[in-house]
Design a protein that fits this description.
This protein is α/β, with parallel strands linked by helices. The chain has two domains: 3-134, Cytochrome c-like domain (Cytochrome Bc1 Complex, Chain D, domain 2); 144-245, Sandwich (Immunoglobulin-like). Helix content is 24%, strand content 28%. The chain has six helices and 13 strands. It has helices spanning 19-25, 39-49, 69-78, 83-95, 110-123, 234-237; strands spanning 3-9, 12-17, 55-56, 61-62, 144-147, 152-154, 167-172, 175-183, 192-195, 201-204, 212-220, 223-228, 240-245. It has a six-stranded mixed sheet with strand order 5-7-13-12-9-10. A three-stranded mixed sheet has the order 6-8-11, with no helix packed on it. It is elongated. The N and C termini lie far apart (51 Å).
Length: 246
C-alpha cells in the first residue's frame, strides 16, 4: 500500500498509511526500533493468534478474513519503507485499532506484541523461506492419512493454531461412523462432513477450542466425502480433506 503523510500524535511522529493497511494490522501487536524482540516467539504467537485471519507467506498462514499482509506491505517495501518503521506502524495499530475493523485491540500484548511486530516487520512482503530457528519455530501441520477403527475416526485440528487438520485424507468402511476432531489451540474450529466435493452437508460439529472436541456421527455409503471447517475463511485456507469410504 502507498504510504501517506507523516502526522504527529502526542509529540510522536506517526506514519499515516492507507486504510487497508491499517485494517491488515489491527490486532497484531507491535514494537518500535530498539525493543528487545524475540522473532521466534513472534512467529509462534503470530501463527497462533493472527494466522487464522491473515495470510503471511513466510509464516505459512493463509487466513482470509483479514487482508493479506504480504500484499499490504508490498508497495511500501518497494517504496523503501524500513522494517523498523513497519514495526512502529504495527505498534500504532495495536494501540489505536481501526474502529471499523474486525480485529480486537490488544489481541496480543506486552512482550508478545513486541515479538509479533518484529517478526511481521522482518518477513512481510519478502521472498524466500524462514531459516534457522525460525524455520522450526512452528511445527508443520501433518498430512498423514487416518484410518477408522471400531467405527471411529480421529481428525484433529493442528494444535499450534495453523489453519489445518492433522490429516488430509482418511479411509473408513461403509456404515455408521463417528468423527472426533480435537482442537488444542485457542483458534476456534469445527468439523463438517459433506457428500462429495460440492454435495449436501451431512452434519456439522460444534465449534471448539482449548482442548474441546467437535464430533459428528454419520452413516456413510461407499464413496468420497469431504471434511472441512465451516468457520469463515478456514476451508479456503486449507482446513479441508477427503474421506474415502468403501
Amino acid at each position: 500500500m502507498m504510504l501517506g503523510s507523516v502526522r504527529r500524535r502526542g509529540g510522536i511522529a506517526v506514519v499515516a498509511v492507507a486504510p487497508v493497511l491499517l485494517l491488515a494490522l489491527a490486532g497484531c501487536g507491535g514494537a518500535v526500533k530498539g525493543d528487545n524482540a524475540d522473532v521466534v516467539h513472534g512467529k509462534q504467537a503470530f501463527v497462533a493468534r493472527c494466522g487464522s485471519c491473515h495470510t503471511l507467506a513466510r509464516a505459512d498462514t493463509r487466513g482470509t478474513v483479514g487482508p493479506n499482509l504480504d500484499q499490504a506491505f508490498a508497495q511500501s517495501r518497494r517504496d523503501g519503507l524500513r522494517s523498523s518503521t513497519i514495526r512502529g506502524v504495527v505498534k500504532e495499530q495495536i494501540l489505536y485499532p481501526n474502529i471499523r475493523g474486525v480485529m480486537p485491540a490488544k489481541l496480543v500484548d506486552g512482550q508478545r506484541a513486541v515479538d509479533v511486530a518484529a517478526y511481521v516487520a522482518r518477513v512481510a512482503a519478502t521472498s524466500g523461506r524462514d531459516t534457522g530457528a525460525l524455520a522450526t519455530a512452528v511445527p508443520t501441520a501433518s498430512k498423514r492419512t487416518a484410518t477408522a477403527q471400531g467405527g471411529r475416526l480421529e481428525i484433529d485440528a493442528n494444535p499450534t493454531g495453523q489453519l489445518a487438520y492433522e490429516v488430509s485424507n482418511a479411509t473408513a468402511p461403509a456404515g455408521a461412523l463417528t468423527i472426533d476432531s480435537r482442537n488444542a489451540s485457542s483458534t476456534p474450529h469445527d468439523i463438517a462432513i459433506q457428500q462429495g466435493a460440492n454435495g449436501p452437508v451431512l452434519q456439522t460439529g460444534k465449534t471448539v477450542s482449548g482442548g474441546g472436541v467437535s464430533t459428528v456421527s454419520v452413516d456413510l455409503r461407499a464413496g468420497r466425502y469431504t471434511f472441512y471447517c465451516t468457520l469463515p475463511g478456514h476451508r479456503q485456507a486449507g482446513m479441508v480433506g477427503t474421506i474415502t469410504v468403501g
